[in-house]
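Obj.: predict assembly geometry.
Materials: sequence records (below).
Method: joint structure prediction, all chains together.
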Amino acid sequence: TQLLEQSPQFLSIQEGENLTVYCNSSSVFSSLQWYRQEPGEGPVLLVTVVTGGEVKKLKRLTFQFGDARKDSSLHITAAQPGDTGLYLCAGAPGNQFYFGTGTSLTVIP
Amino acid sequence: DVKVTQSSRYLVKRTGEKVFLECVQDMDHENMFWYRQDPGLGLRLIYFSYDVKMKEKGDIPEGYSVSREKKERFSLILESASTNQTSMYLCASSRDHLNQYFGAGTRLSVL
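Observations (raw structure tokens):
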């Protein structure tokens, strides 16, 4: 059983479409991070959300932390081929850090 | 920018060999981590270290050991490589154990 469940596992969309991916848990997190991993590379930190209900924007990417701090979402507006990659959420409910299984996004030109 | 450097991008080893994976970070981070990444299983923590000469087991430490003799260097050791250790290995470092910075990864094949 994964502490952080991400959905969908795979997503393939056309350039210009919008999408949302989800990260859910039954545990409460003091913060959650989102990473993007391109093929053959390590994950790169995109954002950290720390307050319940918080919304952060990074250009066309909008991140939201759930009010109860158990879940988060990532919304991408007008997806581009450069957004292709594996999106991972991560957090530490206690001392240990956990990653979700990820959402693999492919944006087709 | 934080730089985390892993010594090899690709490595091919034989079953039973002793394998060393090296990781160096240049940002004076206290915390360093070793993960393996497998399709469908995500990133799984093997070992981590919060200080020099200190190590803690992660979720899957069996078959692995680590060494942290200097703050900037964290080594992962496969004492006797087996085929089920074929994987992508990722090293990370952080100042606060939350916002982790990753190396590019080492893709290890054990034949």
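Conclusions so far: The mean pLDDT of chain B is 93.
To do: check interface contacts against the pulldown list.
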